[in-house]
Design goal:
- There is one protein chain.
- This protein is mainly alpha-helical.
- Helices cover about 80% and strands about 0% of the residues.
């Protein structure tokens, strides 16, 4: 295996090449992920819809805050379960796509159902761990930034904005490292977030940049298509289709990023020429 530097442009090109070579598989898995995610996330969507109605429907700030807090308290478990289910659907369905794109001519169904469940479950754990770290980072960093920003007076806004940007960048970076671990798991290589970090830290900027670019691209596409559907279809149908599209686009960004990450060298593959 020859070494290739995974630049931002190289990662984007690799993601695009994956679509061109395996268009049918990519579309099939993306749509399947979108449908399953929409079905599993419907209870959570109802909680969010109720919360939005509460925030928009009352004029008394104190009453609005109390009702919103009650709605969040009652729906917290539903929101948590919905997020876990969507994460599980995405990570499990990434495995066949990643194996199809991985070097070594791997077959997506190799090993049968047992191997698929093992790879998917370990990938799910990687993403859950990364999400937990992101939540912990936000819980610690946001109050700290707020305190520092308030103490600096006129410079507070600049410091706050800088801190928020850094938190967003760190969140995308952690997700990128989790995707790197998923790419290894798809090849039946045991990985942890720490070992994935050890491999990816030298290329963290292009890994993060590629994921950010893909998320921004699919986010804009989702916004445009959802707006068109909202104007053409009845509200109920448009909401359901919008949820399916959201799940589809989320999967698309994650799957493309994972397939592009095979450019990041795995030193277990390196052999003397």
């Amino acid at each position: 295996m020859q070494f290739q530097t995974p630049t931002l442009s190289a990662l984007i090109k690799a993601a695009w090449l994956g679509i061109r070579l395996r268009t049918e598989l990519f579309v099939l898995l993306s749509v399947l992920s979108g449908i399953l995610s929409a079905i599993l996330y419907m209870p959570s969507a109802e909680v969010i819809s109720n919360l939005i109605e509460i925030l928009d429907g009352q004029n008394d700030p104190e009453s609005k805050t109390a009702d919103a807090a009650d709605a969040i308290d009652e729906g917290a478990s539903t929101l948590f379960f919905g997020h876990l289910m969507v994460t599980a659907v995405t990570t499990f369905l990434i495995i066949p796509w990643a194996r199809a794109c991985a070097p070594g001519a791997l077959t997506p169904s190799a090993g049968g159902t047992k191997a698929f469940l093992r790879r998917g479950f370990r990938s799910f754990l990687h993403m859950v761990a990364a999400t937990g770290m992101i939540v912990l980072l936000a819980l610690v960093a946001l109050p700290t930034i707020s305190i520092i920003g308030g103490a600096l007076g006129g410079l507070g806004n600049a410091v706050t904005m800088t801190g928020v940007v850094l938190i967003v960048w760190a969140s995308i970076a952690l997700t990128g490292i989790a995707n790197l671990a998923i790419a290894a798991e798809a090849r039946d290589r045991r990985e942890t977030l720490w070992t994935a970090w050890s491999r990816g830290r030298f290329f963290l900027t292009p890994i993060t940049g590629a994921l950010g670019f893909l998320l921004l691209s699919v986010g804009l596409a989702n916004m445009i298509v959802s707006s068109l559907l909202a104007g053409l279809l009845p509200s109920g149908i448009a909401e359901v289709i919008g949820m399916v599209l959201s799940g589809t686009f989320i999967y698309a960004a994650s799957a493309l990023h994972v397939s592009a990450l095979y450019l990041v060298p795995d030193f277990r593959d390196l052999r003397p020429l």
